[in-house]
Amino acid sequence: MLIDNHGRQINYLRLAVTDRCNLRCNYCMPAEGINFAKREQLLTTDELKFVAQLLIDMGIDKIRLTGGEPFVRKDLMELLRFLAPLEGLKDISVTTNATLIGSHIAELKALGVQNVNVSLDAIDKETFRRITRRDNYEVVMENLIRLIEEDFNVRINFIVLDGQNEQDILPILEAMKNYPVSVRFLEEMPFNGGSRSFGSIKWDYKTILDYIAGHYPQYQKLDSPKTSTSINYKIEGHKGTFGIIPSFSRTFCGSCNRLRVTAKGDVITCLYGKPKTNVRDLVRGENSEEMIREAILGAIGTRAKTGFDAQKEHQASVFDNSMTSIGG
User: Fold this and answer.
1) Cis peptide preceding 33, ω within 30 of 0
2) Confidence of residue 232 (pLDDT cuts 50, 70, 90)
3) pLDDT at position 300 over 70
4) Are the CB atoms for 80 and 92 separated by under 8 Å?
5) Whole-number Å distance between alpha carbons of 288 and 296
6) Which one of 164, 204, 251, 283 is at 20 to 30 Å from 230 when CA atoms are compared?
7) What CATH number has the domain bearing residue 153?
């Protein structure tokens, strides 16, 4: 069991398999993209397997594969085939933009990968194109509906962007009202590859809820697990639910159970914190298992209490990175 220096159990790993993405969402990176890692800088599939197995042995029982866009990685399914039968791993999930998942849906279901988060920041085609800078709307919607119809546990992640997509908040709830999905609205974060900076946001979690409540007054708050990052609700007459994630306000830090490993092997104990160590360098050295164990325990043992404390570790450079390089 992994316990941090604040008494929090760490059992959830967000494992990034690539920093590349086939979209160019304007809140994530500049139009020309970012300086993506070279192949030799990325963890190989065997290295990802090694790190995942070791962390499971140390107490991780939930792994979410992220990117970038995970399905950009050609051997992603090989990693999933390895993870699926592992003893001690209770849950495998994937976060995706749903552009490339279509050909893998049948195998994902066969492997028992039930939880899929789909990043979708607009229900309007033109708004989608403007935000993503790509014309993939139809394939995303087709794959989203396929995932729902195949009984995956689908959660839609919608980042609320002032002046860009707030007009889609209500339409996406209406479009999904007859489906058993959770539409989760996230506060915007400044991890955008340096394309812009900000110290406050208009659409915080309270504003988002007030806006929704003004149009759907018949809603109720739901009980959520202690470690949940989302505050969850149900609208009367809707088959699914909606949630709000205070990703900028960071109200959930007290119960955080997450550890991040980026595609380059950086170990991050808080999205807003700086890397604590790098397992890529260790796994390629001698006595790698022992060294990685020590490094992970050292990182867990020096976690910041909150995201605001973590931000102070590198205040001047915390927002220089793109979300795609941090691991989603």
Assistant:
1) no
2) very high
3) yes
4) yes
5) 12
6) 164
7) 3.20.20.70
Helix (H/G/I), strand (E/B), else coil: 314: coil
The pLDDT, as a whole number, for residue 316 is: 65
Token reading at 57: 């042995």
Query: How distant, in Å, are the alpha carbons of 14, 137, 316 from that of 11?
Result: 10, 35, 30
Helix (H) or strand (E) holding 259: strand 258-261
- The pair of structure tokens assigned to 47 is 């290295």
The 10s digit of each residue's pLDDT in 196-231 is: 677 889 999 999 999 999 999 999 999 999 999 999
Residues 105/149, Cβ–Cβ less than 8 Å: no
Beta strands in 31-172 (DSSP E): 62-66, 91-96, 115-119, 153-159
Confidence of residue 96 (pLDDT cuts 50, 70, 90): very high
DSSP letter (8 states) at residue 285 = S
Tokens of 296: 């992970």
- H or E element, residue 111: helix 105-111
Q: Which two tokens stand for residue 129?
A: 């194109």
Q: How many domains does the chain have?
A: 1
Residues above pLDDT 90, as percent of the chain: 82
- Identify residue 10 by its one-letter amino acid code: I
